[in-house]
Amino acid sequence: MDRKKFLMTASLAAFSISACAHVKIEGESGKIEEGEGEAGFIGECATSSDILGPFYRANAPERSDLTFAGLKGSVVEVKGRVLGIDCITPVENAVVEIWHCNTEGEYDNDSSEYRHRGSQTTSKTGEYSFKTILPGKYLNGKLYRPAHIHFLVTSPTSQQLVSQLYFMGDPHIAKDPWASQEKARERIRPVVLEDVNGNLVVNLDIFTSPIEE
């Protein structure tokens, strides 16, 4: 079978860069409140799902650094924790997979390098971290999809989660049928300048759901 080519017209999406480390976000399934120390959660905190999309590839290599020589784009660290159904307990040995397009809106769907794709197993503290680039936008019909990073989380103690991370300030979120949903609000995250060296960071804690009996 011939390899399918997925090429989309695209350009680098606009992002909002924030110098603040704490952002108040109210979502459909819970609330994160500003304050000293740990965030407080009201109600259920499970991270909402999103579409898988047509570009998932199984068997992405286990790695935290998705950059490579000659890579174009703004390097960013995407990091956070995977937490249990009580919204507090870290989930160890959860597998977090991410994938996204390049700055031109193109996905690597068939190369052996699995570019812009990777997986990682969480630590004892539930932490994960990927070094990658901010992806571009691409046309979906007549509208641009906002820049996004797909993620899939698998754990023996919780439901499998398929979802997407979006970036605060992206002008294409409002008209996107998925990113504009109320439940997606907690997954629209600021791109933060973490230090004087200009390193960019996006934080996303992922809250799991119990396995349905």
Oligomer: single chain
Helicity, as a percent range:
under 10%
Q: What is the chain-wise order of helices and strands?
A: EEEEEEEEEEEEEEE
Task: Provide the structure class.
Answer: mainly beta
Q: What do we call the CATH topology?
A: Protocatechuate 3,4-Dioxygenase, subunit A
Principal-axes shape call: globular
Query: If you compute it from the alpha carbons, what radius of gyration comes out, rounded to the nearest whole angstrom?
Result: 17 Å
Write the layout of secondary structure elements.
Elements: E1 17-18, E2 25-26, E3 31-32, E4 75-83, E5 95-99, E6 117-121, E7 127-133, E8 138-140, E9 143-145, E10 148-154, E11 161-167, E12 188-189, E13 191-193, E14 200-203, E15 206-207
Parallel strand pairs: 1-13, 4-14, 4-15, 11-12
Antiparallel strand pairs: 2-3, 4-7, 5-6, 5-10, 8-9, 10-11, 13-14
Describe this protein's structure:
By secondary structure, this protein is mainly beta. The protein has no helices and 15 strands. It has a single domain (49-207), classed as Protocatechuate 3,4-Dioxygenase, subunit A (Sandwich), CATH 2.60.130.10. Helix content is 0%, strand content 30%. Strands 1, 4, 7, 13, 14 and 15 form a six-stranded mixed beta sheet that branches. The protein has a five-stranded mixed beta sheet with strand order 6-5-10-11-12, with no helix packed on it. The N and C termini lie far apart (40 Å). The model is unreliable at 1-43 (pLDDT under 50).
